[in-house]
Amino acid sequence: MPTGVALRDAREQLFEAAERILARSGPHGLTSRAVTTEAGCAKGVLHRHFADFDDFLAALVQDRIARLDAQAAALRAKAGTASVAGNLSGALTELFGPVAVAIVGLITFRDDLRARLRQSTPAGLPLLSEATAMLAAYLTAERDLGRIAAGADPGTLAPTLIGAGHLLYADRTGTPPADEAVRAMVASVLIGATT
């Protein structure tokens, strides 16, 4: 691999390469050599920016988690608009793209990565825990607006939606679920919770 090739933003380029590999080959295809080959750079570039491959993977997951902030803000802004089920269905569809599903598999697959991520996500599964908090905040806002029943528990509804949503999307070999399937699952979880 040639050296001395200028990279616009090495970290971002390596993250993008890793995401392409995850989407194409899943967690088992993600190696340091595969990432640097996909990024078109020397293997030393990765080690210049990260202590080791698990450090790189932890930074990749943290980057993906940080992207949830914009999605969470957009979802909270939808509170009181459209339908609760429609807003949640859209959020789950955006959340469970092929890269996010592969990242969940990667976290499950690599014990050392999970241990490193415990510093920022002490409980639950990193990425899914933050996504659960995003949905719980939205559901709380909807409850405050009276669109979710006063007795509904966002702390129970949110992880139920995340778990059921993950099961719908987790089959990497198949096509993503139809929008109708996602909406039906959300509507089923929300039975008795919406006003």
What this model shows, in words?
This protein has two domains: 1-49, Homeodomain-like (Arc Repressor Mutant, subunit A), CATH 1.10.10; 69-190, Tetracycline Repressor, domain 2, CATH 1.10.357. With 195 residues, the chain is mainly α. α1 (10-25) crosses α6, α4 packs parallel to α8 (128-144) and α9 packs antiparallel against α10. The longest helix has 25 residues, at 53-77. 68% of the residues lie in helices and 0% in strands.
Structural topology:
Elements: H1 10-25, H2 32-39, H3 43-49, H4 53-77, H5 84-95, H6 98-109, H7 111-117, H8 128-144, H9 154-169, H10 179-190
**Number of helices, where a helix is a run of at least 4 consecutive DSSP H or I residues:** 10
CATH class of the largest domain: Mainly Alpha
Order of helices and strands: HHHHHHHHHH
List the uncertain runs. Answer: 1-5
Mean pLDDT: 92
Kindly provide the radius of gyration, computed on alpha-carbon positions and rounded to a whole number of angstroms. Answer: 19 Å
Class inferred from helices and paired strands? mainly alpha
Count of spatially separate domains: 2
The CATH topology of the largest domain turns out to be: Tetracycline Repressor, domain 2
Q: Outline, from the CA principal axes?
A: elongated
